[in-house]
Design brief:
Layout (H helix, E strand, L loop, with lengths): L7 H8 L3 H14 L16 H13 L5 H7 L10 H10 L15 H26 L4 H14 L1
Length: 153
């Protein structure tokens, strides 16, 4: 509208806003080439939007990839290294989850078998205790409780 030889005041009347709003938008467009891309007083971005997309694609391809490995492989603006926390923040903004390396014992076949046996024993134990709690103790049930005790222990 401004390029169609309309005055600033005519455009502001058309959109029902103050004329200074239109003149401010016009000046911003002249200076920066866009009305949305303007200077701000928040912390400057370390990565470009293209690098953000690249980080997202890496984590979509390999969802177990740790953020530290992505940070080491990505160089930010002005040849700065980016931190793993920055990668985690960018991934979280994209509604993805950053994985952290596994800290703990690796499950060997022996450990896995031992854990399975323990879990099976305790599942049975829990079920038996649940049944026993529902029973009414009488002289007849004492024999039954002794048999359960022998089975469990």
């Amino acid at each position: 509208m401004l390029t169609a030889a309309m005055s600033t005041r005519a455009v502001s009347r058309e959109f029902n806003v103050h004329f200074s709003t239109i003149s401010r938008l016009q000046r911003r467009f002249r200076e920066f080439g866009s009305t949305s891309n303007r200077p701000h007083n928040r912390r400057p971005c370390v990565t470009t939007p293209a690098q953000d997309l690249h980080i997202q694609h890496l984590h979509l391809q390999d969802h177990l990839r740790p953020a530290t490995r992505t940070a080491a492989a990505t160089i930010g603006l002005h040849n700065q290294r980016i931190s793993a926390q920055t990668v985690r923040n960018h991934i979280r903004e994209a509604h993805l989850r950053a994985r952290r390396p596994h800290w703990g014992l690796d499950l060997t076949s022996v450990r896995r078998r031992n854990r399975l046996e323990w879990a099976n024993a305790h599942i049975r134990w829990r079920d038996v205790l649940h049944c026993v709690r529902q029973m009414v103790v009488t002289p007849d049930t004492d024999w039954f409780l002794d048999q359960i005790y022998i089975l469990l222990f």
